[in-house]
């Protein structure tokens, strides 16, 4: 008690003014954040345990929505699609981005670097909804641009979007085209942090390039690689419009993702509780990935 | 050391790598060149093979046809602009205010609040959209472009980016002003904000393009034609105008991607800096 009195007496006018301004300045962000993020998240969690009926009100159903999700072969197939998409999209987005960054991380005229960044980053700026429409003509069977070139090389055309074993691959190809430039930019910046004298000394000693990469470059940029993997995973798990526009989730359910299922269930068949449960599952995966990354990156930095 | 590993041969390898990258870069640009070229062609040439990647002339009749069609393209364009501008201005204001408080002012609960805000980086739109939809349905904000804008007047990402940037700036000027008896608001407005200009530009451009490109949220909340935004409308347009007329769709598309492309051409430096800041400072 005496402690607080002492503190209170000790606080100067300046400190009080500072606190007042502080609260005032964070007020808009705090109010908006609670209204449009935190409260909706809590409500979604509540909804995920209920059967929502706009007329009769909600009914608590416990884990029923989650049980349904994890036992229905169709939703499991869609879950698996999403995980598969995430794994390959992340691997190739980050991998290709890193290779491109290594390729561009050398002496070249400024205008050339500008043009390269332009070419690889432009897709990042464009809505994937726009890009997907263009790609749907590239991926078309008979009149498609890609198949035209394949035939020109004497190869058989590929049924990019209509073959259920190919469709997901096509969507991943477009996703890498769209996003890899983002990771390239991050890696270019990270590579500039690798000490040059160390690299030069290693080169003088005759250390081969691949070993210099694994022994010096990669350890230096590993925190950024971790960040990139997490960032890419969070984005990939939410994949929606590229699939909606290219295949509508088909053929069959071959490319349907969790986000598509959420919209279909929540806004199509008004299974609000079930849709909420699916989005909770998605969020839990994101939280888990982030937690794993935190632990791993701490371990890595300590080594 | 063998002879191959000389300066000259290393430069040869450099140029070989650059040449390969150039071929890839050209491949990356193909979809853009194709859509641009298509938007200037009569529909009779739309499906021609081999595909062409350069416009034959600068005949804007497809563009005029889109604007004159029965699809309210200008209304849709205006919706997109309204949402993107309101969100961008809103975030610049709310995030820079919050960043100043988090980086420069001491108050009880500050670090807890900042942590809670950071947690928001992990929530996808999918986990907030259902309650927002239900709430909007009750308050009449469904099919109102401003409803979508309201959701994004602040962002965890923006507040975080601006705070990180502000923390890295020297405080000397602000402390001197405080000694001279300036109030905190004046210090924020006259000293901190001008210093933040690069971060503001980066956040502004990133926010504008991100908002311009929203699809999932827009599709759920803005389903009526009059209230649609461009990314969602484009797929609808394809059905209406489309029906074979690829050239019109591509003309509409060129107009739709124009703001993002222009922003990037003008301010490549800020975009790259902003992205780099988020990646490196984690």
- Whole-angstrom Rg of chain A: 25 Å
Euclidean distance between termini CA atoms of chain A: 46 Å
**Number of DSSP E strands of chain A:** 2
Number of helical regions of chain A: 13
Radius of gyration of chain B: 24 Å
Report, as a whole number of angstroms, the end-to-end distance of chain B. 41 Å
Q: Multimeric state of these chains? A: heterodimer
| Poorly predicted residue ranges of chain B | none
What overall geometry of chain B do the principal axes of the alpha carbons give? globular
GO biological process, one term (chain B): transmembrane transport
InterPro entries (chain B): MetI-like (IPR000515), MetI-like_sf (IPR035906)
Subcellular location (chain B): Cell membrane
Family (chain B): Belongs to the binding-protein-dependent transport system permease family.
Q: What does this protein structure show overall?
A:
Chain A is mainly α. Chain A has 13 helices and 2 strands. A two-stranded antiparallel ribbon of chain A has the order 1-2. Chain A is globular. Chain B folds into 2 domains: 3-59, no CATH class; 65-281, MetI-like (MetI-like fold). In chain B, helix 8 (172-179) packs antiparallel against helix 9. Chain B has 282 residues and is mainly alpha-helical. The interface between A and B is large, with 92 and 94 residues.
Provide a brief overview of the structure.
The complex is a heterodimer of chains A (303) and B (282). With 303 residues, chain A is mostly helical.
